[in-house]
Amino acid sequence: MSKMLNSAVSRIGSRLLTLLIIVLFCTSLWQLAAAGWIQGKAIVAQKLLDYSWQKTRTLDDEEETQNHKPWPWADTWPVAKLIVPQHDIEQIILAGDSGSSLAFGPGLSLAGVAPNTPGTTLISGHRDTHFQFLKDIQLNDTLYLQAAVQTERYQVYDLQIVDSKNYKVQSHADEQALVLATCYPFDAVTAGGTLRYLVFANKQST
After folding, report:
1. Cα–Cα distance between 46 and 151 in angstroms, integer?
2. Which DSSP string corresponds to the chain?
3. Cβ distance 42 to 70 under 8 Å?
């Protein structure tokens, strides 16, 4: 009787172990598929953004005011391209810095001026994705901001950590500046703090 009971228990244990392995295997496959889907969407999105930016840069005079959305339902579109040679960075800048825009790339803030115009252009990005490289930016690094019709060169002259509750980026019409902003600290476990890391750069004469 004892041998039969032990045999039954062994069979049940074996089946449970097999079931557990199957469940873990299926869960792993699902997670891999989900990660692959997200990565795939990111790659396709960047291709579409690049294509929209190229269309923007080849506008003729009659199309100059048109915005080329990367996909029909997008609520944003490319307005510039940020190039940082020292850090091997080339990123499409999108209109607006809402959450939906920043999910796909850095966003041009309405608090600043249009790219490569007098005043201060303010561009925001997530600290753990597109603007993660800001932690490696050094004073005197060169930045290029490519707009639809021209590219300007900027040089980093200041790096600051500020509290967004009581700090506002100033814009002066008599100078042309660029500010890149992201959340701080870069390795924060949770998002939503008020600290911001700012990179200040001035236009350089060609």
Report:
1. 21
2. -HHHHHHHHHHHHHHHHHHHHHHHHHHHHHHHHHHHHHHHHHHHHHHHHHHHHHHHHT--GGGTT----SSTT-S--EEEEEEEGGGTEEEEEEES-SHHHHTTS-EE-TTSPPTTSSEEEEEE--TTTTTGGGGG--TT-EEEEE-SS-EEEEEEEEEEEEETTT------TTSEEEEEEEES-TT-SSS--SEEEEEEEEE---
3. no
State the Cα–Cα distance between residues 43 and 60, nearest whole angstrom.
29
pLDDT at 33: 43
Q: Are 121 and 178 in contact (CB under 8 A)?
A: yes
Can you give the pTM of this predicted structure? 0.78
61 pLDDT above the threshold of 60: no
pLDDT at site 112: 93
In the block, tokens 């199957």 appear at: 22
Phi, psi of 196 (to 5 degrees): -130, 145
At 109-122, the pLDDT tens digits run 998 999 999 999 99
Cβ-based neighbours of 146, under 8 Å, separated by 6 or more? 80, 81, 82, 83
What are the beta bridge partners of residue 6?
A: none
Average pLDDT over residues 129-145: 96
